[in-house]
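Students often ask why inverse folding is considered easier than folding. One informal answer: many sequences map to the same fold, so there is more than one right answer. In these notes we will look at a single instance of the problem. The structure comes first.
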């Protein structure tokens, strides 16, 4: 089922990918070095386990600016993810510059392979159960995760240049 989905995504990418476009979806991967309870705006206090967190979002304007903001440690909390990022280390952004709202599709694909999810996190504006996933081990060492991001022609190696 998942393999077939990936093939569909590959076709879409070839058709719709526009190089250099500053809009699309992004994934932020980060590591939480110890278990902690964090107050997340309207969701209240959440117990986060030690491990890797993968957040999926999109920005139809200024994608690079949005991702830069997520990587900043000091900012005014606006989105759910803003409460978590100050505690994360080893943060890595992944950019998917396909100018179509794919974040929920990407989120669903990741939900299948993740070790857990944080209920209702980042998904107030859609029907997804969450946009934040938990991985016990580094997702960049997980072939299923790499297959998903590769299927979107995501850039993560050359991220410095883009930002
Ligand atoms: Zn969604």
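Output (designed amino acids):
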């Amino acid at each position: 089922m998942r393999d077939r989905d990936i093939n569909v995504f590959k076709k879409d990418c070839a058709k719709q990918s526009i190089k250099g476009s500053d809009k699309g979806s992004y994934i932020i991967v980060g590591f939480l070095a110890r278990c902690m309870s964090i107050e997340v705006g309207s969701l209240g206090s959440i117990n986060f386990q030690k491990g890797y967190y993968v957040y999926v979002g999109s920005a139809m304007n200024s994608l690079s600016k949005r991702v830069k903001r997520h990587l900043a440690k000091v900012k005014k909390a606006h989105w759910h993810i803003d409460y978590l990022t100050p505690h994360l280390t080893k943060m890595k952004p992944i950019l998917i510059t396909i100018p179509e709202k794919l974040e929920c599709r990407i989120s669903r694909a990741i939900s299948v392979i993740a070790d857990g999810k944080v209920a209702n996190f980042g998904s107030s504006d859609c029907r997804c159960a969450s946009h934040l996933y938990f991985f016990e081990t580094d997702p960049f060492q997980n072939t299923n995760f790499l297959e998903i991001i590769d299927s979107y022609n995501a850039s993560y190696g050359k991220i410095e240049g883009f930002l």
